[in-house]
Design a protein that fits this description.
The protein is mainly alpha-helical. The protein is 69% helix and 0% strand. It has 7 helices and no strands. The two termini are 15 Å apart.
Amino acid sequence: MSTDTLTAPIRLDGRAKGANALWRDPGYQAFTLLRIGFTALPILFGLDKYFNILVHWEKYLASWYNDILPGNAFTAMHIIGGVEILAGVLVALKPRYAAYIVAAWLAGIVLDLLTLSGYYDVALRDFGLMLAALTLARLAAKYDPPGLNVRFRP
C-alpha cells in the first residue's frame, strides 16, 4: 500500500481517490476494527469506574497498587477511569502512538491482577488485549501517518 492512497486528494464526489481500494484492504479493515474497539472500550470502562454498573471495580485493585496511588481505592478507581477515558480519546486521535500507551496500561493491569489472587483468568484476557493493542500499533505504523497531524480516514 503506497502512502499515496493514504494522502490522496479528495474528488468532487467527496471520496478520496483510492478510498475503495483502501477499504477492501484486509489490513486496513483490521486496523479500523481495532481502532474502534480501543477507542470505545477504554472510554466505556473508564466511565464505569465512576458508576460501577458493570462491576465493583475496587475489588480488582491489588493492595500494593492502592498503597502507591493517592487516596483510597475509590479515589484510585476515579483516577484510573480518567486515564482510561484519555487513552480511548488518544487512540481515536492518533493510534500510531496511543496504542503503545494502551498496551503499557494493559501490562500494568495484568501485573495488578497477577499479584491479586483469584483473577488469573482476567489477567490472561487482559494480556490478550495487550497483544491486540500492540497489533493496532503495528498496523497504525502503516495506516496512520507519522507526526501529530490528526486525520480521520475515509
